[in-house]
Amino acid sequence: MRKYWEMAKSQIQLDTAYTAWYWARSASIIMRMLIIYAFWHAVYENRTTISDMPLDTMITYIVLATLLGNYVSGVGGQLANQVRDGSVAIELMRPYNLLDKLVALDLGSKISGTIRETFPLLLVAFLFLHINSPTSWLSLLLFIISALLGIFIGTQLDLIIGILAFWLHYVWGLRVLRDAILAFFSGVLVPITMFPSWLQMVSNFLPFQSMVYVPVAIYTGQIEGIAALQAIAIQLVWLVVIIVGIRLAWSFAIRKVTIFGG
Amino acid sequence: MRRYSKLYWQYFKARIKVMMEYRVDFLIGVMSVLFVQGTSILFIALVFHNVDTIHGWTFYQLLFIFAVAMLGRSLEHTFFDNLWTLGWQYIRPGNFDRLLVRPVNPLFQIIAERVQQDGVGSFLVGIIVLFTAIPHLELHWGIAEVMLLIVMIISSAAIFLAVNLFFATLSFWMVDSLPVMYAVQGMNDFARYPMQIYGKGVRFVLTWIIPYGFTAFYPAALFLDGSGFRSIGIWTPVVAIVTLSIALLFWKRGLRSFVSTGN
Fold it and tell me: Which stretches are transmembrane (chain A) (predicted)?
């Protein structure tokens, strides 16, 4: 465990060294928030609620979903690059589990991202976009638990990109595809409750809504009480299923490494 | 000029050969772009599933704006995508020196070295969206209107190119300006929605500083009756020429102050 923590720390140091990307990302998120604000104000021009959500709830939802949406992808792309340039073979010989190492690096980045990006942007959102505070202390607590689970699910699921790289070359395309699917089905763009009912049904059977929609809806009070606990239980199940599934796929995939030779 | 078109053709053939090597990847690329563009359309459709108009604009009017943006962007994306890699693929590893010793314009070489197949996907989506929107807009389409639309789409592509070229050029001073390009590019999402929904500041920036407004909303408004933006929209080709000239001058300036990273 300790070595993985050291890896996470090294990633935090690495992130703090590259400031250009930090400013670029923050700037583009602030711009997205501006668009969100203007767009939803225009949508609500002649009405008070959409899918039972008033304007302030909607803006709170979308802003939080946008911020949480930054966490759903992980280090799948990095793994894919290592698979493609062959350095994965050397990584496999080292005294750690490669997947766990990558997850540790990813969590390191996410920790530094939370402190350097999410918290300041959240403050900006509270001050200038006037987003709501959570409905109660309990819902705040459940939100944090649920958000953490969502982030873990995203981190693990992302490794699929890296595993697919054993068979496919064009990693950029895969990543774009992943981003599109995630943006839509995780609930970053609109709350799942705005989907037509058949699409909500489909989404219920997919792991993606557990990453963003569930935690944010707990925050805004759309999911509350027993339903919130149920949703968190479903997140836990997904997390376990995905961790096991990924490890199985991985042990199958690395056999290809020995076939290729060193 | 003839020499350059011949050269471009040679580069192009080489690119196609590479693409054909990785056919599955080609399909993934096209599919992924279809999906990305699809989600943005789906987003709009979902919103209009719940409301009738946004600030007086209908679903199909918004689709028309989207279509202009997608078509312009896809042209730029297909043929000029390599500018994104100027910093990390050319300047940082010292490859840019290699381009300078050849007797061909370095900007031409960078542009010609890659054709981005994914642009084809977004072009297709753009066409589909355009033809979905048009029958619902009660427009009169003659030869003149079609020509005008084509000019507007090419101008939109030229503005995308100009903005990208301008910020890619910063790489000559800062080695890799990719983060800056990324941040600026994020702004073009603004241009897909009617400008009236934004405050004065945003509108000013998108019209006068980084004229992304002219890549989608203004030229599209030219065709949408009674939108009140016709007199601005008509300036789109002029804006395209001016921004492209500025970007090219800036590129030349950057080229002069280029110092190799060494090897």
Answer: 20-39, 59-80, 114-131, 137-168, 180-206, 226-250
Nearest to B148 by CA among B43, B237, B262, B49: B237
Domain limits of chain A?
A: 2-260
**Which chain B residue's Cα is nearest to A165?**
B25
pLDDT surpassing 50 at residue A262: no
Instruction: Mark yes or no for CB contact B186/A27 under 8 Å.
Output: yes
Give the residue from A45, A48, A49, A203 with the most B CB atoms within 10 Å of its CB, the best one to mutate: A45
Residues 150-169 of A with CB under 8 A from B: 168-169
What are the Cα distances from residue A188, in Å, to B49, B54, B188?
18, 20, 19
Question: What residues does A50 pair with on adjacent strands?
Answer: A53
Model confidence pTM above 0.80 = yes
> Is the model's pLDDT at A42 over the cut of 80?
yes
Contacts of A173 in chain B (CB under 8 A): 25, 28-29, 31-32, 118
DSSP A117: I
What would the pLDDT profile of B153-174 be if each residue is shown by its tens digit?
999 999 999 999 999 999 888 8
Average pLDDT over residues A18-43: 85
Euclidean distance between CA atoms A97 and B225, whole angstroms:
62
Q: For residue A97, what pLDDT band results from cuts at 50, 70 and 90?
A: confident
ipTM topping 0.90:
no
Give chain B as a 3 state SS string.
Answer: CHHHHHHHHHHHHHHHHHHHHCHHHHHHHHHHHHHHHHHHHHHHHHHHHHCCCECCECHHHHHHHHHHHHHHHHHHHHHHHHHHHHHHHHHCCCHHHHHHCCCCCHHHHHHHCCCCCHHHHHHHHHHHHHHHHHHHCCCCCCHHHHHHHHHHHHHHHHHHHHHHHHHHHCHHHHCCCHHHHHHHHHHHHHHHCCHHHCCHHHHHHHHHHCCHHHHCHHHHHCCCCCCCCHHHHCCHHHHHHHHHHHHHHHHHHHHHCCCCCCC
Residue ranges of E strands in A35-143: 49-50, 53-54
Q: Which amino acid is at A231?
A: A
| Cα of B175 to nearest chain A Cα, Å | 12
Q: Is B141 on the interface with A (CB under 8 A)?
A: no
Closest CA to B86 of B251, B257, B256, B253: B251
Angle made by CA atoms B174, B176, B179, in degrees to the nearest 5 = 105
Contacts of B46 in chain A (CB under 8 A): 189-190, 194-195
Q: Is B120 in contact with B32 (CB distance < 8 Å)?
A: no
Give the pLDDT confidence of A110-126 residue by residue, as tens digits. Answer: 888 888 888 888 998 88
Task: Give chain B's residues under pLDDT 50.
Answer: none
Q: What was the pLDDT predicted at A113? A: 85
